[in-house]
C-alpha cells in the first residue's frame, strides 16, 4: 500500500471540505464571531486534544509503527490551556462549556482511538496534519482580527517542529509504510471520515450558538 496517504487524502476530501467551509469557521476567520466564540472553540479543542493525547501516551508503548505517530513534539493540550486562560480573561462574560458535539467526539476518541492503533492513526491524521498545514496562517489571522499578538494563539504554533512541510512529508511516508491489510485501510479511511464529521458537528453547534456578527449582537443588546 505504497501510496496510502494519497488514497486517504482523496477519500476524505468531501468530509474535509464540509468541515472547513462551515459558516462558523468562515466568519471566525473574517473576525465576525465575538470573542466568546473564539473562547468556546478553544475550549472544545482542549477537550478533544486532552483525549487524543491521552490515547497518544498509550500508543507510545505499543509495538509496531503506531508509536512513531505519537510524537510528543505535536502535543497541543498545554498550549490550549495557556490560550484558554488568556482568552477567557479577555472575555470575562464567557462561560466555558463542553458542547454535546464535543462530548460525542471525545467519547469516540476514548472508546476507539485509545484502544485501536488503526483508529488512533485516523484521528491523529485528521487533527495534526490539518494543524500543521494551516495552523500558522490561522493563528496570524486570528491574532490580527482579535488583537491577540502571540498570546492566545500558541495552539497554532509548533515550536518543536521548525519545518512543518518536511514533517508532513515524513508523516505521509509513515502512512505509506503502514503494514495495512485492505480491511485495515478501509477501517482507517472510514474513521478519518468520521473524525472530519465530528469536527463539522462541533463547528455547526458553535455556529448555532454564535450566529451573528459582533455588530449585530451589539445592536440587539
Structure description:
This protein is mainly alpha-helical and 221 residues long. The chain has one domain (4-211): Heme oxygenase-like (Heme Oxygenase, Chain A, Up-down Bundle). 71% of the residues lie in helices and 0% in strands. Helix 4 (35-59) packs antiparallel against helix 10. The radius of gyration is 18 Å and the shape is globular. The relative contact order is 0.19. Mean pLDDT is 91; it is low at 216-221.
Assigned CATH class: Mainly Alpha
Q: Radius of gyration from the CA trace?
A: 18 Å
Number of domains: 1
In CATH terms, the superfamily is Heme oxygenase-like
Structural class: mainly alpha
Q: Order of helices and strands, N to C? A: HHHHHHHHHHH
Produce the secondary structure layout.
Blueprint: H1 4-11, H2 13-20, H3 23-29, H4 35-59, H5 66-69, H6 77-90, H7 100-113, H8 117-146, H9 164-176, H10 182-209, H11 214-220
Question: Quick recap of the structure?
Answer:
With 221 residues, this protein is mainly α.
Descriptors for this entry?
221 residues, mainly alpha, Heme Oxygenase, Chain A, 11 helices, disordered C terminus
